[in-house]
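User: My advisor asked me to double-check a structure prediction for AP-1 complex subunit gamma before group meeting. I don't want to rely on an old file, so could you generate it fresh from this sequence?
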Amino acid sequence: MPAPIRLRELIRTIRTARTQAEEREMIQKECAAIRSSFREEDNTYRCRNVAKLLYMHMLGYPAHFGQLECLKLIASQKFTDKRIGYLGAMLLLDERQDVHLLMTNCIKNDLNHSTQFVQGLALCTLGCMGSSEMCRDLAGEVEKLLKTSNSYLRKKAALCAVHVIRKVPELMEMFLPATKNLLNEKNHGVLHTSVVLLTEMCERSPDMLAHFRKLVPQLVRILKNLIMSGYSPEHDVSGISDPFLQVRILRLLRILGRNDDDSSEAMNDILAQVATNTETSKNVGNAILYETVLTIMDIKSESGLRVLAINILGRFLLNNDKNIRYVALTSLLKTVQTDHNAVQRHRSTIVDCLKDLDVSIKRRAMELSFALVNGNNIRGMMKELLYFLDSCEPEFKADCASGIFLAAEKYAPSKRWHIDTIMRVLTTAGSYVRDDAVPNLIQLITNSVEMHAYTVQRLYKAILGDYSQQPLVQVAAWCIGEYGDLLVSGQCEEEEPIQVTEDEVLDILESVLISNMSTSVTRGYALTAIMKLSTRFTCTVNRIKKVVSIYGSSIDVELQQRAVEYNALFKKYDHMRSALLERMPVMEKVTTNGPTEIVQTNGETEPAPLETKPPPSGPQPTSQANDLLDLLGGNDITPVIPTAPTSKPASAGGELLDLLGDINLTGAPATAPTPAPVPQISQPSFLLDGLSSQPLFNDIASGIPSITAYSKNGLKIEFTFERSNTNPSVTVITIQASNSTELDMTDFVFQAAVPKTFQLQLLSPSSSIVPAFNTGTITQVIKVLNPQKQQLRMRIKLTYNHKGSAMQDLAEVNNFPPQSWQ
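Assistant: Sure, here is a fresh prediction for AP-1 complex subunit gamma from the sequence you gave:
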């Protein structure tokens, strides 16, 4: 059989291939020749064939059939064979294949070989791919080589010991005696590997960490010698003595000094020397300074040293290298919470990074800029960030807008500035804002009573002829609907008022309705705004009726439903229209975990947040509360059972009771003492299945004590409880309202809300008049489904007329007896 070609010739031949197919053909031909040679047990050229096989493996072609040949080469007595055999074992074998266990004995023999280079090959292979079984068997030989006087073997044995500890952590103590003496070695290679070994042991064992803390002075001394030593050609890199060893020592000092005062104190001086004496003109020096900064920030260092570290990062921001600037911004972002004032000194440099062309640097600079915003610099920082929002790439706009909203809410110097800032964001990047931007701005505007005229005028001018920013148009439509009368009357005192007629306002809203840019959500806002203007404008009511009736045949089902209901409000419920469409009251801030928390969205599927809808024509629900929740459009709140369920999620409003507060039912007729029949409406399976208004329940378990839920201004509300035997998760609460004053309380309305984990059914009351002198009571039944058996909480709202005045009050009921919900 002819001699196989050499590796060099194979490489040259493969490089001449013009296509991938041609290369594959060459490789397959050579692999076939190598297989034939292996089958013939050709010992002469085995080394050459395995070398060629390793090259083909590096190119990505399968070479597993050479694994056993590698073991044969390892068993050979020739050094050249062993070298290729061990290299092949490291490339082709790993601990997942049982074949590797066959080489354990060969490695053990070679670890005890008389030639240091053979021993080095065995140490490299064990440290690269040794399994836990091999490490247990050979750890003794590795530990023995750690104590040898040969520095070539000691550095390789130290790295091999690192692999053994990673595979079998319980063998760590075996290397402890030998590790102590490694730091006394003057050879830089041994010093470097010993520091790596110490770092691994300290990271894996708290006991080892405590044991090695006494080595801090010795490590400090080694680092000091490296800094102060003169030029050493063997270890010099760009004029710095052994930067790799310096970085390793700094990392080990960081681990040893973390959460330890004495160790941190011992290394403060040397860290200051490294930070001040290291040359920054070359990248090598910057690498050492970066490790120094990380160490200073991680240990219990002095405040002056931390300021020095942050100043180093500030200098990094001026570096021309993008990687160094990125590293500096990332490090400052991690430290800004603990050293805020020191980072603030570099604010102008950080803001300049917003103009960088590199998107990674730009993102880090944006995140750090938001972290630096406080009450003192809010105006200047927002100016820079708004400029950045104007010019940044689309992928930044959402995060930037969100950050501006949060910062403005937290540090706004005035309500006008807050409103102007958010409107600027909506004008610039309205399509990228978070879902809750619209309801949050609406709540802010509602609560800023003195700014209503200014805001509605600004929003009106902002959307003249431009409907591209849908969230802005939604807010503008809502505000025009609420405060259109202020816009027409020209009552703005903050800036020069504009002269607008009722027809011009309606022209804008109708343009929004017919614009191709308007989404279904925005059209819902506009239609509701037009409807609300029917109670604020006097000369254009007929035009509003016409617009509403036109959209009663819209192909958009949601818009059609609203138009039909608004049209019914004009015809059948005109006496309720002014009360239902009155101006929104001031809203309370939603609590994070209160009983009436509601998820806010910008109405992607709910066109009119904070709006009311008239009851649809057809059978009336059984109570005013059911009317109310139907008007709210199926909010994601605890449902009242007789109300027709809808598929729409939570409307973009504030707290539930703020929504309830939008409606004044004083003009509604009193409900008859006998509850009206429940209309036949299909209910989803998760509601109170099988429960109708009459009878309320079947088998009742009594014995639950009653409570006084409310007692104020002569009005007393008592709760009595009953539990259904047919459905233990249902609690039936009967409220009794009594009046101890000398005059009747009229138009009495009781409303209730519970957390989302509950479901509530509010039946109709027995009357709307609470007689004076406790001569009678109003009774009303509430059914609460509590499938998770959680503690019952409820918020109630009471509205009534007394002594010629409209009264309204809120209360929370948290003292429900355990028997009522357990």
